[in-house]
Design a protein that fits this description.
The protein has about 120 residues and is α+β, with helices and mostly antiparallel strands. It contains four helices and six strands. Helices cover about 35% and strands about 40% of the residues. Helix 3 crosses helix 4.
């Protein structure tokens, strides 16, 4: 029998080799990503130099602000270790948040932490 993560990957998953740019700062997007395996750097160009803001691994999510506020991407996302990602669109995101309080609370906590770190 397939595990929950395998079932999710079949439905929403994509594989990205190391070096893949998932999105760039300024891109318009309507998907968020959840890392099942591998690593992704979130980077931003500061005075002409690419700076790594954070390296994310399994269980982490990114790109959610494009769904939440429909604004262009605020940073770049680059795969640094071959990755299996769940690609979540706005309808699925909305359904997940509405149907699972645990997911909503976890996301709020992580977003609050990110805001605090950015302050």
């Amino acid at each position: 029998m397939a595990s929950e993560s395998e079932i999710l990957f079949e439905k929403f998953g994509r594989e990205f080799p190391a070096g893949t740019v998932i999105f760039r700062e300024g891109d318009v997007g309507n998907e968020m990503y959840v890392i099942q395996s591998g690593k992704v750097n979130i980077t931003k160009e500061v005075r002409g130099v690419e700076k790594v803001l954070v390296t994310l691994g399994p269980g982490a999510f990114f790109g959610e602000m494009a769904i939440i506020n429909q604004k262009p991407r605020s940073a770049n996302a680059v795969v640094v270790e071959d990755a299996r990602l769940l690609v979540i669109g706005p309808k699925t995101f909305d359904t997940m948040i509405r149907s699972n309080v645990e997911i909503a609370v976890r996301m709020i906590k992580i977003l609050a932490q990110r805001l605090q770190e950015a302050d």
